[in-house]
Design goal:
Keywords: Cell membrane, Membrane, Transmembrane, Transmembrane helix, Transport
CATH class: Mainly Alpha
InterPro entries: MFS (IPR011701), MFS_dom (IPR020846), MFS_sugar_transport-like (IPR005828), MFS_trans_sf (IPR036259)
Protein name: MFS transporter
Radius of gyration: 21 Å
CATH topology: Growth Hormone, Chain: A
CATH architecture: Up-down Bundle
Number of strands: 0
Largest sheet: none
Membrane topology: Multi-pass membrane protein
Number of helices: 21
Structural class: mainly alpha
Distance between the termini: 20 Å
Subcellular location: Cell membrane
Number of domains: 1
Length: 443
C-alpha cells in the first residue's frame, strides 16, 4: 500500500487544514464569550436581574471548560483508534453545527426556560469539539510534516487559533454598535451564522487530506492499540505532568484578555473599544510571529525557544500592567505587542510540536488531548484569582504580576525537564525501551 509522502503539497495542505479548522473552532468558541458578555443576559436570562443575569450568562461560557476534559478522553481515544481525519471532521462539524444552532435559538420570551437549556447544550457541544481540535490538528500536521520542519508546519494550528480570536473580536465590534433593539433581536445572531461559510471551506480542505503515513503504517503493522488511554496513563504520566507545568505560561493569555480588559477600563479609564483593538493588534502580530518562532525551533530546538519566550513573558507582564496605569493607549499597545506578539508567541508557537513529540503515534492524539485540556484548567481560574489579588493605586498590580512571572518561570523550567525532540526522527518520538517492550497487544 502506498502512503502519502511528507513532501510536495501534503504538509502545506495539512497546515492549511489545521489553520482553517482552528480558526473556525476558536472563532466559534470566542464569539460565544463576546455574546455572553454583551447580550445573553438580556436574551436568555431577562428575569434574573442585571447582575444575576450576567453571572448566569458567563456561567454558560464556563460550561465548555468542564466539557473539554471529558471530551478529550473520547476524542483522543477515537483519534488514535480510527484515525485523525475522521475525528477532526467530527469536531469541525460539531463546532460548526452547534454554533449555527446558537444563532437560531429562540429567546427566553418565546420558549421560556427551554431557551437557556438549549443554549447550555450547544455550549457543551462546543466544549467537546474544542477538546479535540488543537490536539488532533497538531497530531495530523506533525505526522504529515517533513523532518526538520515539523515545528514550522505544526505551528499553523496556533496561528489559526489566534486568527479566530482576531476575527471574533472584529465581528463583535460593529455588532455591539447596533441599536439596542436590533442587537438583542437579530444583530447578535449574525456572527454565529457567518461561521458557516468558513466551516464549509475548512470541511472541503479537511476531507481531501489523507490520513498521515504514520497512522496508516500503524494500521498495516497492527500496532493500533485497543485502549490508548491505558497506555498513556501507564507510560506517559511524566509527559502529562511536564505539559501541565509547561502550559502555565498560558495563564498570561486569559489574565490579559479577560482580567486586564476590565482592569484597564474600570480602574484606569481606557475605553473598552481601545482595549478591544489592543487585543486585535496583539493577536494579528501573533499570527505572523508564531510560525517564525516555530521555524527557529526547528533549527535550535524546541526547549530554548519555548523557555526564552516564557521568561520573556515573566518580564514583560510587568511592563504591560505598568503601561495600563499610565492610561496611555499607545504605551498599552506597545506593551501588549511586546508581551503577546513577541514573547507569548514563542511558547504558543512551539507547544504544538513540543507536546506532540512527547508521545508515539499510538497514543499521540490521546496524550495531547488529555494533557492539554487538563493543563488549561488554571487558565479558567486566573482571572478570578487576579480580581482577588489586585490592589489599589499605581502599584496594586505588582502581586499579580509576580504570580504570573513565577508561573512563567516554572513553565520555562519544565520545558527543559525532558529531552530535546526537534531532531528526533518521527518514528522514534515517544518511544523508549520501557514503552516499546511493555506495549500492549494491538486491537
Amino acid at each position: 500500500m502506498s502512503h502519502t509522502t511528507t513532501t510536495g503539497q501534503t504538509p502545506r495542505k495539512a497546515a492549511l487544514a489545521s489553520f482553517l479548522g482552528s480558526m473556525v473552532e476558536y472563532y466559534d468558541f470566542f464569539i460565544y464569550g463576546s455574546a455572553s458578555a454583551l447580550v445573553f443576559s438580556h436574551v436568555f436570562f431577562p428575569d434574573a436581574g442585571a447582575s444575576t443575569g450576567m453571572l448566569a450568562a458567563l456561567a454558560t461560557f464556563a460550561v465548555a471548560y468542564i466539557a473539554r476534559p471529558i471530551g478529550s478522553f473520547f476524542l483522543g481515544h477515537f483519534g488514535d483508534r480510527i484515525g485523525r481525519k475522521r475525528v477532526l471532521i467530527f469536531t469541525l462539524a460539531t463546532m460548526g453545527g452547534s454554533t449555527f444552532l446558537i444563532g437560531c435559538l429562540p429567546s427566553y420570551s418565546v420558549i421560556g426556560v427551554w431557551a437557556p437549556i438549549l443554549l447550555v447544550l450547544c455550549r457543551v457541544a462546543q466544549g467537546v469539539s474544542a477538546a479535540g481540535e488543537q490536539s488532533g490538528a497538531s497530531s495530523m500536521t506533525l505526522e504529515h510534516s517533513p523532518e526538520g520542519r515539523r515545528g514550522y508546519f505544526t505551528s499553523f494550528t496556533l496561528s489559526g487559533t489566534q486568527a479566530g480570536l482576531v476575527v471574533a473580536t472584529l465581528a463583535f465590534i460593529p455588532v455591539a454598535a447596533l441599536p439596542t433593539e436590533a442587537l438583542y433581536s437579530w444583530g447578535w445572531r449574525v456572527p454565529f451564522w457567518a461561521s458557516a461559510i468558513v466551516v464549509i471551506v475548512a470541511m472541503i480542505v479537511r476531507r481531501t487530506l489523507e490520513e498521515p503515513p504514520a497512522f496508516e503504517e500503524m494500521k498495516e503493522s497492527q500496532e493500533v492499540v485497543k485502549f490508548p488511554l491505558m497506555v498513556f496513563i501507564r507510560h506517559y504520566w511524566g509527559s502529562f505532568l511536564r505539559i501541565v507545568v509547561c502550559h502555565l505560561y498560558a495563564t498570561i493569555s486569559t489574565t490579559v484578555t479577560v482580567f486586564g480588559l476590565g482592569y484597564a477600563v474600570e480602574q484606569w479609564n481606557i475605553s473598552r473599544s481601545s482595549m478591544l483593538w489592543t487585543i486585535v493588534i496583539s493577536n494579528i502580530g501573533q499570527v505572523v510571529t508564531i510560525p517564525l518562532w516555530a521555524k527557529l525551533s526547528d533549527k535550535i530546538g524546541r526547549r530554548p525557544v519555548f523557555a526564552v519566550g516564557a521568561l520573556g513573558c515573566a518580564a514583560s507582564v510587568f511592563v504591560y500592567f505598568w503601561a495600563i496605569t499610565t492610561s496611555n493607549w499607545s504605551l498599552v499597545v506597545l506593551a501588549s505587542v511586546l508581551l503577546g506578539s513577541v514573547c507569548y508567541a514563542a511558547p504558543n508557537g512551539v507547544w504544538p510540536s513540543l507536546y506532540a513529540e512527547m508521545f508515539d503515534a499510538r497514543v499521540r492524539y490521546t496524550g495531547l488531548a488529555v494533557s492539554t485540556q487538563f493543563a488549561n484548567v488554571p487558565q479558567g481560574f486566573l482571572p478570578t484569582i487576579a480580581a482577588l489579588m489586585i490592589g489599589t493605586g499605581a502599584f496594586g498590580w505588582v502581586p499579580l504580576a509576580i504570580l504570573l512571572a513565577v508561573l512563567c518561570v516554572l513553565a520555562a523550567a519544565a520545558a527543559f525537564a525532558g529531552r530535546e525532540t526537534a531532531h528526533v526522527p518521527l518514528k522514534q518520538l515517544g518511544r523508549t525501551p520501557r514503552t516499546t517492550a511493555a506495549a500492549p497487544r494491538p486491537a
